[in-house]
Amino acid sequence: MNKIIISVFLFIIAFVCKSQTVELSDFSADRPGMATPPNISTPKKIQIETGFSYEKIKFQETNLLNSTLLRYGINQNSEIRLQSGYAQFKTDSLNITGFNPLSIGTKLMISEAKGILPKTSFLFNLTLPCIGEKNFRPENLTPSIYLLMQNSITKKLGVCYNIGLEYDGESSEPAKFAAICFGYSISDKLSGFIENYNWFSNSTKSENFIDLGCAYLIGNNIQLDLSGNINLNDFENYFMINFGVAWRI
Q1: What's the pTM?
Q2: What structural domains and CATH numbers belong to the chain?
């Protein structure tokens, strides 16, 4: 595990040290879907993506009172990322409130779209076990890696899809993540999406979800979003709603 983490960091350092040409890009947020687009944040700009969510699973509730992702564009090909949040977890016998562990990461552009070949990026996150509410922390350094891909079907319709591996900080075997998201530009400011996202593991039952939502761009640098999620394995006992904002400074 440690060799994998060190190798990934060396690759990231080598990649980030490339040329740092600055060019203002179109606004693109990782919110609100679970599938992450491959777009790199604008070079030399900070982008704050924050939101609130409520998740209900049978007799337990999770209030994500704040979830914040900070993105900074190094150049046209790379960005660095910090993510954490403040959450409340409730059951009949528990009520735990505190900060989620801190995650650090990067997104690296691999290739632009060309014909049927998708725009593709690599995303690496590392969750630290030493920061945050002790009940929310993993036991060990927890990496996750993803390939992020996107194709334009028409001028208004696009598809984004991800595959990845996610460790839980305890087991040496990662869960496999896959997502596909269809997004449609209703206007220059308003867009909608529907997606399917899933986790697969050899040791546990697969988890399959659908969510849908919309996003509205205010000016050139602020986006509001609203979405809802359901569990395809348990319609009656699960739902989640999300509201958030992304702001480029």
Answers
A1: 0.87
A2: 2-248 (2.40.160.40)
